[in-house]
Amino acid sequence: MTLADPTLSHDAAPKDKATSSKSPDGLILLVVLVLLVLWGLSIFAFGVPGLYMPAVAAVPVIWVVLLMISRT
Fold first, then answer.
1. Contact criterion met (CB below 8 Å) for 39 and 54
2. pTM (two decimals)
């Protein structure tokens, strides 16, 4: 018997996609990683302004997020 033997499969029937729920953790981690890489590239390309300008640009976004989560 090999690992590709179809008789050894645990789930022969396809799963219903409506009943399975996926966690968004992987997507969130990917977005954070991409943003960190982009920030690192801006530091590499522009130096010190590339370090602080994304943080300055994120201030209004974070402010709106804080307002949204505080209005429960």
1. yes
2. 0.54
